[in-house]
Design brief:
Number of helices: 3
Strand content: 25-35%
Shape: globular
Largest sheet: 5 strands, mixed
Number of strands: 5
Family: Belongs to the acylphosphatase family.
Number of domains: 1
Keywords: Hydrolase
EC number: 3.6.1.7
Enzyme class: hydrolase
Order of helices and strands: HEHEEHEE
Catalytic activity: an acyl phosphate + H2O = a carboxylate + phosphate + H(+)
């Protein structure tokens, strides 16, 4: 009985701390466009894989200009990590010449349920 009481107290305490942490966490949103050899090299596939790994939401797609553009949303630190990945890493066969980020802001709620690859332009 005593073990059950302690376990219940610990679980309840942990549950409330987790909820408080999630509620206090801000959501960052940023639009991006990546220039270079980023089409036909699985760039979008690797971008989705990295976004999923970081727990981010948003989308990406090829453009008619030969770039990849999209939007990412999530915890600020994870969005910053993704921005660095988009600047420097990409897919193994890609060549990133330039990464532009616009409309960087905090939002009160997510606009997307997950990270998706949209149909080409």
């Amino acid at each position: 009985m005593f073990r059950l009481l302690i376990l219940t107290t610990i679980v309840t305490s942990f549950k409330y701390r987790t909820v408080t942490t999630v509620a206090a966490m801000s959501i960052k949103s940023v639009d991006f466009e990546i220039f270079g050899r980023v089409q036909g090299v699985f760039f979008r596939k690797y971008t989705k894989k990295q976004a999923d790994k970081l727990g981010l939401r948003g989308w990406c797609m090829n453009t008619s200009k030969g770039t990849v553009q999209g939007q990412i949303q999530g915890p600020s630190d994870n969005v910053e990590s993704m921005m660095q990945w988009l600047r420097t890493t990409g897919s193994p066969s890609s060549q990133i010449d330039k990464a532009e980020f616009k409309n960087e802001k905090e939002v009160s709620e997510y606009s997307f349920n997950d990270f998706s690859i949209r149909k080409d332009y």
